[in-house]
Amino acid sequence: MKKKFIIAGLLFAAFGLTKMTAQINFGDKAIGAVQKGVTGFTFSNADAAKLSKEAVDKLDAEHEIAGPSDGYTLRLNRVFGKHASGDGFTLNYKVYKLKEVNAFATADGSVRVYSGLMDIMDDNELIAVIGHEIGHVANNDSRDAIRAAYQKEALMDGVASQSATVATVTDSQLGKIGSAIIDSKYSRKQESEADLFAYNFMKKNGYDVNAEESAFRILAKMSEGSQASFIDQMMSSHPDSQKRADEAKKRAEKDGLYKPYVQQKIVNTVPAATTTKKATTTTKKKTTTAKKK
Ligand SMILES: [Zn+2]
Predict the structure, then answer these.
(1) How far is the CA of 132 from the centre of ligand 1 (A)?
(2) Of 36, 80, 151, 179, which is least surrounded by CB within 10 A?
(3) Among 18-32, 63-77, 85-99, 179-193, which stretch is predicted with the lowest mean pLDDT?
(4) How many domains does the chain have?
Protein backbone atom coordinates (compact mmCIF):
# COMPACT_ATOMS: atom_id res chain seq x y z
CA MET A 1 0.00 0.00 0.00
CA LYS A 2 2.72 2.35 0.95
CA LYS A 3 4.63 1.43 -2.16
CA LYS A 4 1.78 2.42 -4.38
CA PHE A 5 1.49 5.67 -2.67
CA ILE A 6 5.10 6.50 -3.08
CA ILE A 7 5.18 5.60 -6.71
CA ALA A 8 1.98 7.32 -7.63
CA GLY A 9 3.02 10.31 -5.69
CA LEU A 10 6.53 10.55 -6.95
CA LEU A 11 6.35 14.21 -7.54
CA PHE A 12 3.61 15.19 -5.89
CA ALA A 13 5.52 14.90 -2.70
CA ALA A 14 8.58 16.63 -3.84
CA PHE A 15 8.82 17.31 -7.48
CA GLY A 16 5.78 19.42 -7.93
CA LEU A 17 7.44 21.97 -5.79
CA THR A 18 9.51 23.48 -8.47
CA LYS A 19 6.48 25.39 -9.50
CA MET A 20 5.89 26.83 -6.10
CA THR A 21 7.09 30.24 -5.31
CA ALA A 22 6.26 30.31 -1.66
CA GLN A 23 8.46 32.57 0.37
CA ILE A 24 10.69 30.87 2.81
CA ASN A 25 9.88 32.30 6.12
CA PHE A 26 10.40 30.49 9.33
CA GLY A 27 9.01 33.14 11.57
CA ASP A 28 10.33 34.13 14.96
CA LYS A 29 8.82 31.24 16.78
CA ALA A 30 10.35 28.64 14.50
CA ILE A 31 13.74 30.28 14.60
CA GLY A 32 13.66 30.33 18.37
CA ALA A 33 12.78 26.68 18.43
CA VAL A 34 15.69 25.80 16.19
CA GLN A 35 18.15 27.78 18.21
CA LYS A 36 17.08 25.90 21.27
CA GLY A 37 17.69 22.67 19.46
CA VAL A 38 14.06 21.78 19.19
CA THR A 39 13.41 19.63 16.16
CA GLY A 40 10.41 19.77 13.94
CA PHE A 41 10.44 23.46 13.13
CA THR A 42 8.63 24.54 10.04
CA PHE A 43 10.63 23.79 6.95
CA SER A 44 8.20 23.05 4.20
CA ASN A 45 8.79 21.12 1.03
CA ALA A 46 8.77 24.45 -0.77
CA ASP A 47 11.49 25.76 1.53
CA ALA A 48 13.56 22.66 0.83
CA ALA A 49 13.00 23.00 -2.89
CA LYS A 50 14.06 26.62 -2.99
CA LEU A 51 17.18 26.13 -0.93
CA SER A 52 18.08 22.95 -2.84
CA LYS A 53 17.71 24.78 -6.12
CA GLU A 54 20.09 27.50 -4.98
CA ALA A 55 22.64 24.96 -3.79
CA VAL A 56 22.37 22.93 -6.99
CA ASP A 57 22.74 26.04 -9.14
CA LYS A 58 25.99 26.70 -7.34
CA LEU A 59 27.16 23.11 -7.77
CA ASP A 60 26.29 23.31 -11.47
CA ALA A 61 28.40 26.42 -11.85
CA GLU A 62 31.35 24.65 -10.26
CA HIS A 63 31.21 21.42 -12.26
CA GLU A 64 31.77 20.60 -15.88
CA ILE A 65 28.37 19.70 -17.23
CA ALA A 66 27.95 17.54 -20.31
CA GLY A 67 26.55 19.68 -23.11
CA PRO A 68 23.33 18.97 -25.01
CA SER A 69 25.09 17.06 -27.79
CA ASP A 70 27.50 15.18 -25.54
CA GLY A 71 27.21 11.40 -25.63
CA TYR A 72 26.56 11.21 -21.91
CA THR A 73 23.68 13.67 -22.19
CA LEU A 74 22.22 11.86 -25.16
CA ARG A 75 22.36 8.59 -23.30
CA LEU A 76 20.76 10.02 -20.19
CA ASN A 77 18.04 11.57 -22.33
CA ARG A 78 17.39 8.19 -23.85
CA VAL A 79 17.45 6.25 -20.61
CA PHE A 80 15.87 8.67 -18.22
CA GLY A 81 14.20 11.40 -20.28
CA LYS A 82 10.87 9.64 -20.38
CA HIS A 83 10.71 9.60 -16.61
CA ALA A 84 11.64 13.22 -16.12
CA SER A 85 8.20 14.70 -16.32
CA GLY A 86 4.72 13.63 -15.57
CA ASP A 87 1.54 14.84 -14.06
CA GLY A 88 2.44 17.87 -12.02
CA PHE A 89 6.16 17.32 -11.75
CA THR A 90 9.34 17.94 -13.65
CA LEU A 91 12.76 16.61 -12.84
CA ASN A 92 15.73 18.43 -14.28
CA TYR A 93 18.70 16.20 -14.89
CA LYS A 94 22.29 16.75 -15.95
CA VAL A 95 25.55 14.87 -16.21
CA TYR A 96 28.62 16.02 -14.30
CA LYS A 97 31.75 15.03 -16.17
CA LEU A 98 33.64 13.55 -13.28
CA LYS A 99 35.28 10.16 -12.80
CA GLU A 100 33.65 9.70 -9.44
CA VAL A 101 30.93 7.13 -9.26
CA ASN A 102 28.07 9.12 -7.89
CA ALA A 103 24.59 10.45 -8.42
CA PHE A 104 22.25 12.51 -6.34
CA ALA A 105 18.80 14.02 -6.43
CA THR A 106 17.59 16.99 -4.48
CA ALA A 107 14.33 18.22 -3.07
CA ASP A 108 13.72 20.60 -5.97
CA GLY A 109 13.73 17.71 -8.42
CA SER A 110 17.29 18.13 -9.65
CA VAL A 111 19.00 14.88 -10.61
CA ARG A 112 22.76 14.91 -11.18
CA VAL A 113 24.54 11.86 -12.53
CA TYR A 114 28.33 11.65 -12.69
CA SER A 115 29.86 10.37 -15.93
CA GLY A 116 31.96 7.98 -13.83
CA LEU A 117 28.78 6.19 -12.83
CA MET A 118 27.61 6.05 -16.44
CA ASP A 119 30.93 4.48 -17.42
CA ILE A 120 30.32 1.42 -15.26
CA MET A 121 26.54 0.97 -15.25
CA ASP A 122 24.41 -0.20 -18.13
CA ASP A 123 21.01 1.35 -18.83
CA ASN A 124 19.05 -0.79 -16.39
CA GLU A 125 21.62 -0.42 -13.64
CA LEU A 126 21.60 3.30 -14.19
CA ILE A 127 17.84 3.37 -13.76
CA ALA A 128 18.27 1.41 -10.54
CA VAL A 129 20.73 3.94 -9.13
CA ILE A 130 18.82 7.00 -10.31
CA GLY A 131 15.61 5.42 -9.07
CA HIS A 132 17.24 5.01 -5.67
CA GLU A 133 18.21 8.68 -5.56
CA ILE A 134 14.73 9.73 -6.61
CA GLY A 135 13.45 7.51 -3.84
CA HIS A 136 15.26 9.71 -1.36
CA VAL A 137 13.42 12.71 -2.80
CA ALA A 138 10.03 11.01 -2.91
CA ASN A 139 10.48 9.78 0.66
CA ASN A 140 11.42 13.29 1.78
CA ASP A 141 14.88 12.17 2.87
CA SER A 142 16.34 14.89 0.66
CA ARG A 143 14.16 17.50 2.26
CA ASP A 144 15.18 16.36 5.72
CA ALA A 145 18.85 16.34 4.72
CA ILE A 146 18.81 19.88 3.42
CA ARG A 147 16.89 21.03 6.44
CA ALA A 148 19.59 19.52 8.63
CA ALA A 149 22.30 21.15 6.52
CA TYR A 150 20.55 24.48 6.73
CA GLN A 151 20.27 24.21 10.49
CA LYS A 152 23.91 23.34 10.74
CA GLU A 153 25.37 25.83 8.30
CA ALA A 154 23.13 28.80 8.69
CA LEU A 155 21.02 28.87 11.74
CA MET A 156 23.53 27.41 14.12
CA ASP A 157 25.96 30.06 13.03
CA GLY A 158 23.52 32.61 14.25
CA VAL A 159 23.74 34.31 10.89
CA ALA A 160 20.09 33.88 10.18
CA SER A 161 18.99 34.90 13.60
CA GLN A 162 18.47 38.46 12.42
CA SER A 163 16.16 37.41 9.69
CA ALA A 164 13.77 34.58 9.23
CA THR A 165 14.40 33.90 5.59
CA VAL A 166 16.68 31.49 3.82
CA ALA A 167 17.72 34.35 1.60
CA THR A 168 20.23 35.24 4.28
CA VAL A 169 22.33 32.19 3.47
CA THR A 170 25.72 33.36 2.29
CA ASP A 171 27.53 32.03 -0.73
CA SER A 172 29.96 30.07 1.40
CA GLN A 173 27.15 28.60 3.46
CA LEU A 174 25.41 27.65 0.25
CA GLY A 175 28.61 25.91 -0.80
CA LYS A 176 28.64 23.91 2.41
CA ILE A 177 25.02 23.02 1.98
CA GLY A 178 25.88 21.84 -1.56
CA SER A 179 28.64 19.63 -0.20
CA ALA A 180 26.23 18.27 2.35
CA ILE A 181 23.84 17.38 -0.47
CA ILE A 182 26.54 15.42 -2.26
CA ASP A 183 27.69 13.67 0.90
CA SER A 184 24.26 13.14 2.37
CA LYS A 185 24.34 10.51 5.01
CA TYR A 186 21.14 8.62 5.23
CA SER A 187 20.11 6.07 7.77
CA ARG A 188 20.04 2.40 6.97
CA LYS A 189 16.27 2.52 7.02
CA GLN A 190 16.19 5.41 4.56
CA GLU A 191 18.58 3.54 2.29
CA SER A 192 16.46 0.39 2.36
CA GLU A 193 13.36 2.36 1.60
CA ALA A 194 15.04 4.14 -1.31
CA ASP A 195 16.21 0.75 -2.60
CA LEU A 196 12.67 -0.52 -2.39
CA PHE A 197 11.47 2.56 -4.23
CA ALA A 198 13.96 1.89 -7.03
CA TYR A 199 12.89 -1.74 -7.22
CA ASN A 200 9.22 -0.86 -7.45
CA PHE A 201 9.92 1.88 -9.95
CA MET A 202 11.74 -0.59 -12.15
CA LYS A 203 9.09 -3.23 -11.80
CA LYS A 204 6.29 -0.82 -12.56
CA ASN A 205 8.04 0.46 -15.66
CA GLY A 206 8.94 -2.94 -17.00
CA TYR A 207 12.69 -2.90 -16.42
CA ASP A 208 14.68 -5.96 -15.43
CA VAL A 209 14.62 -5.61 -11.65
CA ASN A 210 17.69 -7.80 -11.37
CA ALA A 211 19.75 -4.85 -12.49
CA GLU A 212 19.40 -3.43 -8.99
CA GLU A 213 21.25 -6.37 -7.49
CA SER A 214 23.82 -6.08 -10.23
CA ALA A 215 24.37 -2.35 -9.61
CA PHE A 216 25.13 -2.99 -5.96
CA ARG A 217 27.44 -5.90 -6.78
CA ILE A 218 29.39 -3.56 -9.04
CA LEU A 219 29.74 -0.99 -6.29
CA ALA A 220 30.75 -3.64 -3.79
CA LYS A 221 33.36 -5.03 -6.16
CA MET A 222 34.74 -1.61 -6.94
CA SER A 223 35.16 -0.77 -3.31
CA GLU A 224 37.61 -3.64 -3.02
CA GLY A 225 39.64 -2.73 -6.07
CA SER A 226 42.02 -0.10 -7.27
CA GLN A 227 39.20 2.21 -8.28
CA ALA A 228 38.00 2.46 -4.71
CA SER A 229 38.89 6.10 -4.47
CA PHE A 230 36.41 6.96 -7.19
CA ILE A 231 33.52 5.60 -5.29
CA ASP A 232 34.40 6.96 -1.93
CA GLN A 233 31.57 9.39 -1.96
CA MET A 234 28.89 7.03 -3.02
CA MET A 235 30.14 4.29 -0.76
CA SER A 236 30.34 6.52 2.23
CA SER A 237 26.78 7.60 1.76
CA HIS A 238 25.65 4.19 0.60
CA PRO A 239 27.38 1.53 2.64
CA ASP A 240 26.72 -2.19 2.71
CA SER A 241 26.49 -2.68 -1.05
CA GLN A 242 26.84 -6.44 -0.79
CA LYS A 243 24.04 -6.69 1.70
CA ARG A 244 21.81 -4.45 -0.32
CA ALA A 245 22.50 -6.54 -3.42
CA ASP A 246 21.37 -9.56 -1.44
CA GLU A 247 18.19 -7.77 -0.45
CA ALA A 248 17.47 -6.78 -4.04
CA LYS A 249 17.97 -10.38 -5.07
CA LYS A 250 15.59 -11.58 -2.37
CA ARG A 251 12.93 -9.15 -3.54
CA ALA A 252 13.24 -10.39 -7.10
CA GLU A 253 13.08 -14.01 -5.96
CA LYS A 254 9.99 -13.32 -3.93
CA ASP A 255 8.33 -11.78 -6.97
CA GLY A 256 9.35 -14.73 -9.11
CA LEU A 257 11.44 -12.38 -11.26
CA TYR A 258 14.90 -13.47 -10.29
CA LYS A 259 17.39 -14.27 -12.98
CA PRO A 260 21.15 -13.70 -12.80
CA TYR A 261 21.72 -10.35 -14.46
CA VAL A 262 24.03 -9.99 -17.42
CA GLN A 263 25.33 -6.50 -17.94
CA GLN A 264 24.53 -4.98 -21.31
CA LYS A 265 26.83 -2.96 -23.47
CA ILE A 266 27.58 0.50 -22.13
CA VAL A 267 27.75 3.21 -24.76
CA ASN A 268 28.34 6.80 -23.76
CA THR A 269 29.29 8.05 -27.19
CA VAL A 270 27.21 10.03 -29.64
CA PRO A 271 25.35 7.61 -31.90
CA ALA A 272 26.90 7.64 -35.37
CA ALA A 273 23.57 8.22 -37.05
CA THR A 274 23.01 11.53 -35.36
CA THR A 275 26.34 13.04 -36.26
CA THR A 276 26.90 14.71 -39.56
CA LYS A 277 30.62 14.11 -39.67
CA LYS A 278 32.25 10.77 -39.53
CA ALA A 279 34.78 9.83 -36.92
CA THR A 280 34.42 12.88 -34.77
CA THR A 281 35.60 12.50 -31.26
CA THR A 282 32.78 11.65 -28.99
CA THR A 283 33.88 13.26 -25.81
CA LYS A 284 35.09 16.75 -25.97
CA LYS A 285 36.55 18.41 -23.00
CA LYS A 286 34.37 21.42 -23.18
CA THR A 287 31.11 21.39 -24.96
CA THR A 288 29.58 24.66 -25.87
CA THR A 289 25.89 24.83 -25.49
CA ALA A 290 23.44 24.71 -28.32
CA LYS A 291 25.98 25.29 -31.01
CA LYS A 292 24.18 23.05 -33.41
CA LYS A 293 20.91 24.83 -33.13
ZN1 LIG B 1 20.92 6.42 -0.79
Answers:
(1) 6
(2) 36
(3) 18-32
(4) 1
User: What is the CA(220)–ligand 1 centre distance, in A?
Assistant: 14
Establish whether 133 is a catalytic residue. Answer: yes
Domain that holds residue 45: 2-207
Cα 23 to averaged position of ligand 1 atoms, centre (Å): 29
pLDDT of residue 164 exceeding 60, the answer is no
Degrees (nearest 5) of the Cα angle 66, 69, 72?
50
Angstrom distance (rounded) from CA 6 to CA 14? 11
Q: At 181, which amino acid appears?
A: I
Residue 184 located in a structural domain: yes
Residue 83 predicted with pLDDT over 80: yes
In a domain, 265, yes or no: no
pLDDT digit string, tens, across residues 5-29 = 444 344 333 333 333 323 333 333 3
Pairwise pLDDT comparison (200 vs 147), residue with the higher score: 200
pLDDT of residue 202: 96
Tell me if 18 is assigned to some domain.
Answer: yes
CATH of the domain at 92: 3.30.2010.10
The answer to whether residue 218 is domain-embedded is no
Q: How far is the CA of 66 from the centre of ligand 1 (A)?
A: 24
Q: What phi, psi does 161 have (nearest 5°)?
A: -65, -20
Among residues 54, 133, 213, 247, the one annotated as catalytic is 133
Q: Determine if residue 53 is left, alpha or beta; phi over 0 gives left, psi from -120 to 50 gives alpha, anything else beta.
A: alpha
CA 28–ligand 1 middle distance (angstroms): 34
